[in-house]
Amino acid sequence: MKLFISADIEGCAGVALTDETHKKESVYQRFAEEMTEEVVAACEAAHEAGADEIVVKDGHGDASNIDPLKMPEYVTLIRGKSGHPYNMMYGIDDSYDGVLYLGYHAPAGDPNFSISHTSTGNSLYIHLNGKVMSECMLNSYTAASHHVPVLFLSGDEEICRQAKELIPGITTVETKHGVGAATWCKAKEKVISEIREGVKKAVTGQKKECQVALPEHFTYEVTYKDWKKAYTMSFYPGMQKVDTFTNKLETDRWMDIVTAHCFVVY
User: Domain of life, per the record (predicted)?
Assistant: First the structure.
C-alpha cells in the first residue's frame, strides 16, 4: 500500500499563535519538533496497518519544518518548494492508495480558530463553487483529480467538521478548538495517541467512502484584505473583477484553479 501525507503545522498540538509557526521566532522550534513527532506517529501507524511506501510532503512555509533525520526507513520526505502548483500536494499522482492530512486548520475568515487562513494571510476568505475553500478542500480536489481517496485528517475542531462535510467517510482527530483569540489545546500525548489510532482505522477502513467527487465546473472567488492586492491580481489571465476587494475565475479544468491559486494569493 502506498500513501501520501500532506503535513502542516497550525493544526498540530499546542499551536495557537502566529509566532509559533514562523521559523525566525524563538518559540517556533518546539512546534516544528511537535509537527515531526505527529508525522512520525502517523507513518508508524500506517506502516503497522499495511503501508509499505509512504511519501510525506512538508506543506508549511518554506517546507523545511519536519526533521528529515527522524523519518522511518520506509518514508520519503519531500522538503522545500518545487514551484509546482500542487504546492502542499506536490508529489501526488495516480499511483497512491490514499491521502492523509496532518496539522490542518480552519480556512481564511473562519472565527473558530485564531490563526485560520487559506495558504497565506492575504485573503479575507476564498469561495469555491459558493463554499468557503479551505486547504483541505483545495488539496482534496487535487487528490480527486488523481482518483486518490482522502482517508484521514488531524487539526482543529472546525477543519475536522468541514472535512467530514466534504468527505463523509474520512477519519478525523481534533487537536484543539478556538474561541475568539483563545485556543483550547488538547495534551500532546493524547493527540499523538489519537493520531496513531485514527490512522490505523483510516488505512484499514473502506476507502471508497473517502473518494471525493470532482466537480465538472469551478467558480473560484477570492476576497482580499487589501484592495491594492485585489487590483493587481485582477490582471491574472482569466480573472474577473467582482468588486473592489474580490476577483473570480471560472473554468472546467482543475489545473486552472490550482495554478491560479498559487499565484493570486501569494
Answer: Bacteria
Each residue's pLDDT tens digit, 172-222: 999 999 999 999 999 999 999 999 999 999 999 888 889 999 999 999 999
Was 174 annotated as part of a binding site? no
158 falls in which pLDDT band (50, 70, 90)? very high
List all residues 6 or more positions away from 251 whose beta carbon is below 8 Å from its beta carbon.
Answer: 217, 218, 220, 238, 257
Q: Is 177 a catalytic residue?
A: no
Residue 8 is labelled as binding a ligand: yes
Best CA proximity match to 50, nearest among 199, 159, 173, 259 = 199
Beta pairing, strands 131-132 & 123-128: antiparallel
Helix (H) or strand (E) holding 93: none
Cα gap 77→221, rounded to integer Å: 33
Secondary structure of 28-77 in HEC code, one letter for each residue: HHHHHHHHHHHHHHHHHHHHHCCCCEEEEEECCCCCCCCCHHHCCCCEEE
DSSP letters of 24-40?
TSTTHHHHHHHHHHHHH
Would the annotation count 105 as a binding residue?
yes
DSSP 120: B
Task: Scan for cell 473554468, then name that residue.
Answer: 251
